[in-house]
């Protein structure tokens, strides 16, 4: 279980971005964090990812403090952020340096397979469509088989057709992964939250707080 206990964050410029956030997310749950611009959604994701430190409060995963980037937590950003001088496979395997070559190959192939891009391993990022590039960034986040996948407005830069396609891909990957990972999707799009999530956490700003939580009664396979 992912647990956020009394999380706060004030930036050095004095902006009080988050206050008193309490959240429990079970393994395999899909939570959408919904709110307008400036509610602290990205800040919250960065704290969970260990890319920044909360003050006060703590983030724990299965009881262990998350005080730094961790291979049990994967992150997908709004833009794919692929390195243009590396192939798709090299981008996906970027976080696997240190593992043996055969193991690395196996994990990269498996991750690309899961997002339906096994045939794109050797192409350059510039050869991909926007939706494909975002699927590669999902593969890169999944390659370490994380327990938690954090997605920060992952579809908002895509056209409506590609967005729906990618939402399907994400749910498919989630359903086919055992055990199912926890997904936390930040969005300002209520339709997206309803399509994807078991639970919607609504935030409000100044400072960022949880305003309400809604359970979505989805009929999943
Ligand atoms: P959201 O993702 O909901 O738009 P953010 O987490 O990006 O919200 O921002 C929450 C508040 O914190 C905003 O007022 C924003 O201007 C401020 N903020 C975000 N990042 C920083 C930063 N690195 N330094 C200072 N203020 C920041
Ligand atoms: P979208 O408009 O949906 O982002 P594109 O029209 O860019 O998609 O791409 C459609 C298809 O063409 C994709 O399968 C993509 O891999 C391929 N493609 C796009 N650009 C190139 C390129 N420069 N070289 C080779 N294939 C490409």
From TrEMBL:
Official protein name in the record: ATP-binding cassette domain-containing protein
UniProtKB keywords: ATP-binding, Nucleotide-binding, Transport
Similarity comment: Belongs to the ABC transporter superfamily.
Transport recorded as keyword: yes
Residues covered by the ABC transporter domain: 2-221
SUPFAM superfamilies registered for this protein in UniProt: P-loop containing nucleoside triphosphate hydrolases
GO MF term (any one): ATP binding
Source organism superkingdom: Bacteria
InterPro entries, A to Z: AAA+_ATPase, ABC_transporter-like_ATP-bd, ABC_transporter-like_CS, ABC_transporter_ATP-bind, P-loop_NTPase
